[in-house]
Write a structure and sequence with these properties.
The structure is a single chain. With 377 residues, this protein is of the alpha+beta class. It has 2 domains: 54 residues, no CATH class; 226 residues, YVTN repeat-like/Quinoprotein amine dehydrogenase (Methylamine Dehydrogenase, Chain H), CATH 2.130.10.10. Helix content is 15%, strand content 33%. A 4-stranded antiparallel β-sheet has the order 1-2-3-4. Strands 5-6-7-8 form a 4-stranded antiparallel β-sheet, with no helix packed on it. It starts with a helix and ends with a strand. Pfam families: WD40 (PF00400). GO terms for molecular function: RNA binding. It is found in: Nucleus.
């Protein structure tokens, strides 16, 4: 394919994405929520995409006017369609496959708190007020971010400020993952003891979980649906376990993709709208799943060669998935086509388990970071 054809294909792809966004926004804004959800799911377009009011109607009116001859015949009518408003990075125009490093401001340690063993996971609450860490020592520590900031003030350096406001001891084996309920004060944990436990962080004296889901496998990863009514568990089983948190009923997909015996799920994450979720597996595959039907809609096999896929996460606009593997690379995949868009190379530590996250830094832009752990899950 020559450069002009390739450029035209990129432009066509942008046009289709923008058109789908306008259709979804038009249906949603006219209270046709069910229709908007169907179109959004079918085209993998975010349901909460933003567009100017009546933009689609305006463009259709101009197009019809052009067909009727109200616009001078022989001229080409073109319109610049707005991209969905999002804080995520737009990688769609990137033509190179390897990311280039940038210089960032010096990062300083703000607070250090030690577990008795390896710290395996850490998650912020949706409102940014709390951060929780889970460890191989089976404990969970809950921090209040404002108290960490208070410790940095000169007059508070020698004060009795303790940012750890809760410590939970209720697992009997190492903790693998944590997640906060999107609307409430609930923290969940998944552990090697095959349990998912619910902690109410609003209760100051609570040291143990108030609800427990007993799974049948080592729970490697947990993720709340954006509604808060469901959660996903990635386990040693090759298929994600979907739980209704009100009934504790477990659901498995009826559309089972081809998996290897070593298909344990290292990480599972919902997209921002819950329309999709993604899994990263020990067999090296990154798989995309429909958030409504629970069917696997795309498998990216050997995403990191022969190495494990250790983590995968959606960009905020749901157009891309960022994955990390034991080959020490970070890769960006296009959701709609499954093609590799860009690859980021870092220090080569092939024996380390990494998780990649997208960090939004306001005016400093967006950056990619990976977290490592030397202990197998």
């Amino acid at each position: 394919m020559d450069s002009s054809s390739s450029e035209q294909a990129v432009q066509d792809g942008k046009l289709y994405r923008n058109l789908n966004s306008l259709i979804v926004a038009h249906l949603r804004d006219n209270n046709l929520t069910q229709a908007a959800s169907v179109v959004a799911s079918a085209t993998m377009t975010p349901l909460n995409v933003e567009a100017p009011p009546n933009r689609l109607l305006d463009l259709v009116a101009k197009g019809l006017a052009a067909e009727k001859g109200d616009i001078t015949r022989g001229t080409h009518f073109s319109a610049s369609l707005p991209l969905p408003h999002t804080a995520a990075i737009d990688f769609s125009t990137a033509s190179d496959m390897k990311g280039s490093s940038k210089s960032f401001p010096k990062l300083e340690t703000r607070h250090l708190s030690e577990h008795k063993n390896i710290a395996r996971c850490a998650r912020f609450s949706a409102d940014g007020r709390f951060v929780a860490t889970g460890s191989a020592d089976t404990s969970i520590k809950l921090f209040e971010v404002s108290k960490i900031k208070q410790m940095l003030l000169p007059e508070a350096k020698d004060g009795p400020v303790r940012p750890v406001i809760r410590t939970y001891y209720d697992h009997i084996q190492p903790i693998n993952d944590l997640d906060f309920h999107p609307q409430g004060t609930i923290l969940i944990s998944g552990a090697k003891d095959q349990t998912i436990k619910f902690f109410d962080i609003s209760k100051t004296n609570a040291k143990r979980a108030y609800r427990v889901i007993q799974d049948t496998h080592n729970v490697r990863s947990v993720s709340f649906h954006p509604s808060g009514d469901f959660l996903l568990a990635g386990t040693d089983h090759a298929i994600p376990h979907l739980y209704d948190i009100n009934t504790f009923q477990c659901y498995l997909s009826s559309n089972v993709p081809e998996t290897s015996p070593n298909g344990a799920i290292n990480q599972v994450r919902y997209s921002s709208t819950g329309a999709m979720y993604v899994t990263a597996s020990k067999d090296g595959a990154v798989r995309l799943w429909d958030g409504i039907t629970a069917n696997c809609v795309r498998s990216i096999t050997a995403a990191h060669g022969t190495a494990e896929a250790t983590s995968a996460i959606f960009t905020k606009d749901q157009r891309f998935v960022l994955s990390c593997g034991k080959d020490s690379t970070i890769k960006l995949w296009e959701v709609g086509s499954g093609r590799l868009v860009r690859q980021y190379l870092g220090a080569m530590h092939t024996q380390l388990r990494c998780q990649v996250i997208i960090v939004l830094l306001g005016t400093l832009g967006s950056s990619l970071y990976s977290r490592t752990s030397t202990q197998n899950l």
